[in-house]
Amino acid sequence: MTPQPNPQAGAAVKAADRAHVFHSWSAQELIDPLAVAGAEGSYFWDYDGKRYLDFTSGLVFTNIGYQHPKVVAAIQEQAATLTTFAPAFAVEARSEAARLIAERTPGDLDKIFFTNGGAEAVENATRMARLHTGRPKILSAYRSYHGATSAAINLTGDPRRWPSDTGAAGVVHFWAPFLYRSPFHSETEAQESERALQHLEDTIVFEGPGTIAAVILETIPGTAGIMTPPPGYLAGVRALCDRYGIVFVLDEVMAGFGRTGKWFAADHYDVTPDLLTFAKGVNSGYVPLGGVAISGAIAETFARRPYPGGLTYSGHPLACAAAVATINVMEEEGIVEQAARIGETVIGPGLRELASRHPSVGEVRGTGVFWALELVRDRETREPLVPYNAAGDDNAPMAAFGAAAKAGGLWPFINMNRTHVVPPCNITEGEAKEGLAVLDEALTVADEHVV
Known about the structure:
Elements: H1 7-20, E1 36-40, E2 43-46, E3 51-54, H2 57-60, H3 69-81, H4 92-104, E4 111-115, H5 118-133, E5 137-141, H6 150-155, E6 171-174, H7 189-207, E7 212-218, H8 233-244, E8 247-251, E9 275-278, E10 290-294, H9 296-301, H10 317-332, H11 335-357, E11 361-367, E12 370-378, E13 383-384, H12 396-407, E14 410-411, E15 413-415, E16 418-421, H13 429-447
Parallel strand pairs: 3-14, 5-6, 5-7, 7-8, 8-9
Antiparallel strand pairs: 1-2, 2-3, 4-10, 9-10, 11-12, 12-13, 12-16, 15-16
Helix pairs in contact: 3-10, 4-10, 7-8, 11-13, 12-13
């Protein structure tokens, strides 16, 4: 689709937004949202006709790109048939979405509880774990993000938690492995895995195993930095949970549905959790949908005991119809395989080549279409390009990098001192190379701040 400039319409959209829309995570008078006129595939454009290659997939959810015609048609057809219905009934779109999801989740995660998004999925997964075990505490990692609702934000391990942290939510944080910035002074992946597992077991022992309901981890942490776990770590966490009777929850809200080159990131590690949370890519974000995939043992807990939780729009027919169409499109078009292939042959090699030429790149890590560049001032000391949780003038180098990317027609995903490369799973080789070329130019701006 060719963007048609209409600055007057864009100005009206912007004016209404500034007058009435209250934006997430923002000081309202300090932001300047781009007015978006349209989107298709891997691109979106503004009302001036400027087009951007979206290396963010929205918020890492448009796994099949924008406006896929088969999913749009499925939503339209469902709206004409049954727009909405209460969650207590059996509805075809809901049943089929649950069946298709259960077919792809690992192990015996065959029951699906639908939510409106990822945070609610985490809320309900932790509630299920507490009720199943009769224990109060949940362990979660620093360098994590699990959502912005009450339990989910307390589980989160980044600064977005701080203003909402009650200090009494039954949450204990621990350090997960991250070799590049190892909290365990490790020199190899094997050391990092072993020491991180020992740290986790020590935490369990000193907190009291009989008080811990669950350990929750992002299979591959997303917003916190796309730190792929070292070999053996997730299997080790599974073993610890089994040893102490703790529920193991994997958060696949961002990593799931093809983004890592497999249906779920857990498939890379041959690990099956007791509960798995999902959202985002389940229907490419076309209609809000999330959920919890539940193991047989936990489902049995609620076979004759009511589960004390529910949502008015649980399994909304429009959202579920979008999920059915999205999963079928991903199968028909080989999108999961495409994500693996483009990551292995284009994005991964391309990012490593950029790192070889740009001193601001400290590390490249990722898989599929789920990558991060760690930007640094000094490769030897690994000092981040900007301080942790930087804002204002302290964040100027990353702001300049982002502005350069946007000027080149690339919309980047930036968090702290990192830029993430998370385009749609069906991005073409040509589009990926186009984005890498813009990153190449933008990184010259980051290089100006290297010592």
